[in-house]
Amino acid sequence: MDKIYLGTNWKMHKTINETELYLKELNKNLNNIDFNKIKLFVIPPYTSLNKARKELVDSNILLGAQNMHWKREGAYTGEISPLMLDEIGVDIVELGHSERRQYYNENNIDINKKAKTALDFNFTPLICVGENYEAKKYGISEEMIRKQLKIIFNNIKREEAKKLLIAYEPVWAIGEKGEPAKPEYAEKIHILIRSYLEEKYDNMTSKNIPLIYGGSVNNENALKFLTRTNIDGLFIGRAAWDVESFLNIIHKINFFKYNS
Ligand code: PGA
Asked: Is the pTM of this model over 0.85?
């Protein structure tokens, strides 16, 4: 793929004020970035989305939300609807992050419903899949990921699938206790995801859906993932919450892309 996707999910971090400071600093330091080759996105918490939209109005950075309900409105206390996100003007909706699955019992059927709604609203669904530690230990990672894909992609047509982004995020690789996947292992799973998409749709479609890796990505290991043909981008948590640290990664990758 000729473009690299680089994005960060802030999880439950940053107030509105902190969002403003972060995005001002980010915007100020992207002058030499080749946006034909690098697609940047940030996914702040809901409370910061409106402020973030304003900060990003003239920028090339895409804005995402961390979750969304599949209904337009209703008696669902604490939830956020697609209408609300549409009004703010988000580009991406992240769906199925492992922390949503782990702590809020989100399942593949929910994620499928959310993906369909997101497509109806013209958001780019960023679908997260990945096996947990148990599955890896017992050698059933591939089965688990195929099952996730099979349910999440149920009733999603080829034309719709082309609008998706997929993040492979092994649960054992995420967060403070996580160990980054070996790049060759991550690529093996990306190839599995691609072949699932090829079986379900066709070769062209499978090649055009960006597959990004997430789980303990940092400045040291970022390029090791991106030099693999089947890894089209990186989804970064902790290493991008400090704007300087995110900028270091962005510039390193821009340099690599510029010279390749
Ligand atoms: P991490 O988070 O980079 O802090 O491991 C990744 C993620 O949850 O997407």
From this structure: yes
